[in-house]
Amino acid sequence: MLARYRMFGRLGFFGVEQGTPRGAVQFLRAAQAILAAPHTALWITPQGRFADARERPIRLQPGLGHLARRTPRATFVPLALEYVFWDEQRPELLARFGPAWRAEESATSADLSAQLATALTATQDTLAQQAIARDPAAFQMLLEGRRGVNFIYDSWRRLRAGLRGETFNPEHGAQ
Predict the structure, then answer these.
(1) How many CA atoms lie less than 13 Å away from 69 in the CB half-sphere?
(2) Centroid of chain to Cα 163
(3) In the beta sheet, which residues pair with residue 81?
(4) Which of 102, 104, 57, 51 is nearest to 80 (CA)?
(5) How far apart are CA 81 and CA 98, in angstroms?
(6) Are strands 92-97 and 79-84 parallel, antiparallel or unpaired?
(7) DSSP assignment of 52-107, as one string?
(8) Partner of 106 at 20 to 30 A CA spacing, among 7, 56, 67, 129?
(9) Rounded CA gap, 155 and 161, in Å?
(10) pLDDT on residue 149
(11) Which has the higher per-residue pLDDT, 108 or 151?
């Protein structure tokens, strides 16, 4: 996909050949080089693909446990993301970071992968509960998009509010 969408390569994305020893070596070398530099971050999809947030059990790629074992000074932070439709036409992106985590020196790569999977699962489950509760106060707004249903319907609603002497509020959930 990097050949097709070159912009991602310029942003620092790198591909990993899935399911091969060569791909595992490529991943570990690139990840270790990134994490060896100060003030850097490595964002990965630990399942090796984009997966549904409700998929259980979470199956992480084995390279993640090996990376944690080889970079004991690195801090891992699970991140859960969900797109939800609450009140508007377009979805909202909800994000939740789990607690920061570091590898135990005596743990095996398999144990570290299991610990990371448990941490990610807990983070995803907490985010799912917050998404179901539909309480915007549980989140900090970073970006806000346009509100409203669609141009034609909102135009009609705006006109109707004007004729009634009311203030138009484009939010879908507004009364």
Answers:
(1) 16
(2) 44
(3) 95
(4) 51
(5) 11
(6) antiparallel
(7) -TT-SS----HHHHHHHHH-TT--B--EEEEEE-SSSSS-EEEEEE---B---TT-
(8) 56
(9) 10
(10) 61
(11) 108
Block residue for tokens 């699970």: 78
The distance from CA 77 to its chain's CA centroid, rounded to whole angstroms, is 11
Amino acid at 150: N
Give the integer Cα–Cα distance in Å for 65 and 48. 13
Cβ distance 70 to 113 under 8 Å?
A: no
Token digits of residue 21: 């020893």
Count of CA atoms in the C-beta half-sphere (13 A) of 159: 6
pLDDT tens per residue across span 61-89: 889 999 999 998 899 999 999 999 887 66
Instruction: Report d(CA 140, CA 155) in Å as an integer.
Output: 30
Is residue 47 within 8 Å of residue 35, measured between CB atoms?
A: no
Q: What sign does the CA torsion over 66, 46, 1, 31 have?
A: negative
Round to whole Å and give the CA distance between 120 and 1: 26
Q: Please tell me the total number of residues recorded for the chain in this structure.
A: 175
| Rounded (10°) angle between helices 62-70 and 21-36 | 40
Using DSSP's 3-state secondary structure scheme, residue 48 falls into: coil
Three-state secondary-structure class, residue 6: helix
Residue 145 confidence (pLDDT) above 70:
no
Q: Hey, what amino acid is at 35? A: L
For 91-131, write each residue's pLDDT tens digit: 889 999 999 999 988 899 999 999 999 999 999 999 999 99
